[in-house]
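User: For documentation purposes, I need each entry recorded in a consistent format: the amino acid sequence on its own, followed directly by the corresponding structure tokens. There are two entries in this batch. Please keep commentary to a minimum and don't merge the entries.

Assistant: Recorded as requested. Entry 1:
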Amino acid sequence: MNTKKKKKGRSLFKNWVLKAHLWLGLLSGIIVFVVSITGAFYVFNEDITAYMRKHVIFHNQENYQDIDPIPIYELKDKVNKQLKEMGEEISSEDVTIPIDPARSYQFGLLKSNHDGWNYFNTYLIYKNVYVNQYTGEVLGVYDIRKNPFFFAMILHRSLLLSNTIGGTIVGVSTIVFVIMLISGIILWWPKNKNMRKQRFWFRWKNIKGWRRKNYDLHNILGFYASFLALIVALTGIMYSFRITTLWVYMLLNGGSADSPDFSIYKTTAPESVETPTTIDKIAQTVKQHYPYAHSFGLDLEDHDNADHHHDNLFVSVKEKEFTYAQSSFMIFDEHSGELLHNHPYKDKSFAQKATDATYDLHVGAFFGFTGKVLAFICSLFCASLPVTGLIIWWGRRNKKKVKTLNNT
């Protein structure tokens, strides 16, 4: 008697899980498909872009080891003069400097509309400019807005809408997807070990019907994708709802939201001590401290005319080419060029390292190229789930209709 009740209870539970899985899938399926397929497309963005632009990423300057780069502000003026002659509307106010002297400097052009509600009226100008730092020659200008990878990334993050609107829709859909992954595992989990073994791989030797094969595709691919997909989805939620990043930080930081205070490091030297080569002094200091890093960025904006306040000059150092988790930073007095604080990656807390790794975990880069391959395959599996799930639902729906007609 008790055994029957338990079996009935389990059946009723799975029946409710099935209904939730079905309706949540129907509601979010199209968004999950779009987000998954664009995610798969974007995974190798940096690798492919680096390969296709290697003729400008490397300046190919002869005997560059024996030549000093043009001072940064002088180089900036040369670049902006050339850009103006090319018909560019705005000037560059920032530069990314590679540690490897064989690589070109990269200047940025950015003009955005913060009130824009979609992709097309938010990013007005967004370009990368590659420059030979030894001659000042502009090697190439690339419009990021026309880059299919960037288009896919915005579609992935916010469905080509503003982050406030589209990001929220994607975030909610991702939360629904996490629920579906968990409910899918519950539905997949068989009653005994023998049945469990049969669900780990396709057994199509005596199966001819495509509906059964589609059902197996949904269940088996869903099972194998679910564990990695949970990591990808949860890190995606952290991007959509930044408050979740704080929750993760607190969880890993012993329940405390406290983080190191760097506001004490401020520019105190008078502006009169600053010279056009102060920024070069800062760049040289960065290179001395991080000779094996990949690159670092410098803000070259005229701070008096800037649209945001500067207490100091903050320099972020990217230590590897295709990852962002392993990064350090330095704080300088922007007038004197004095190093106020150096914060290498190794000195960061575990909570900070973990939350900084969100992007790399999301795209698989945290585990190197192998991780990217797994993220790519996982994203394709995830994209297939709404399709195979819809086919299962449609087939069962039509089957019920046929049965009803036959009975009448």
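Entry 2:
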Amino acid sequence: MGTEGHNERVIAGRYRLEERLGRGGMSVVWRATDRLLGRSVAVKELPYDETLSAAQARRRRDRTLREARALAQLSHPHIIVVHDVVEDDERPYIVMELIEGGSLADRLAQRGPVDAAEAARIGIALLGALGAAHTAGVLHRDLKPDNVLLETGTDRVVLTDFGIAQVAGTPTLTENGSFVGSPEYTAPERMSGMRTGPESDLWSLGALLCAALSGESPFHRDSLGGILHAVVVGDIQPPAQVGPLLPVVRGLLERDPDRRLDAERAERMLRAFRDTGRTPMSPPPAYAPTVGNVPRRRPLGLAVRQPSVAPVEPSGPGRPEEPFLRQPARRVLIAALLVAAMAGAGVSAAALLAGEGDGDGGRTSTSSAPTPPETPETSNAPETPKAPKTRPASPSAPAPTP
């Protein structure tokens, strides 16, 4: 049992919970002190919910432990560090490093979109993190601005919230058929249930880069049905701000996962832009990717492939204008049937976003722990209204950076 004190609670006889940093539908995140080592940490708590059945409570507990196991396998400067996993009063707690700073979503809400150079820096860091995770057989499956932290003072980019990650050799928590994740950032092959692989995380990165540069996902719509249609069927129209990084975004948002731009090529293109101010149409060979520095081992039960991708050709004079990206007719049909079936069945947004006992399905905390708060805490920076959202037309070719 945790011990109660004046405005504090100690769990496992070691971690003193001092300040609530955020709360979501699934968990509470605390700023805490490790009394043994005398350091500040973030503690993610799974509160008791008396409305849950024993089976549902067990699934939530399994989710928390699963997140800890996924993170414990990973060691990378751009992935959140897990220090400990403890149980107190039959509830699990994940003890993580405390990141002083908000999420990328907070940054976009408070200060607006980032420029192309900053987006490239964030993309390079996340590609390194994903490369390490995929090499270890871990798929994140919920890459979005809420789950990317920006450390104050160092600008370190940290990938967090592996709560719905898929780990090779472990059973999934979504076997009941429910979908978990964030539809605006979910690859079409996951939407249709066709496959899930490292390429799905890369699609999410493409949508995240669009959001970082413009303030919102290119698949943002007013309804869940609209989002599903945009992801799996509709023409993809990236905002004008994506121009400098358009070749990378186009490659990552290729609907056919076998043709999607792979992590190493995407990183080489982003590094070239960072150094020259222009994004090449095909990956230059001179830029060694960060993922190559991570020791590679073949994961069990998860095929990590490097799909080939054809060079992206911009439209030009004499070339008929085409939608930004298309998918094979067969997959369009499957996706359209999926959307129609979901609409006809009256699937709720809550079911798609959260699923039963899996995924936080909301906005992420401004702390290092991966918890989406439902209401802002007094300890965090005040919420500011988001800038008006516009949806400019897609450029036909990447605009050079001055």
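Summary note for entry 2:
The chain has two domains: 3-97, 104-311+323-353.
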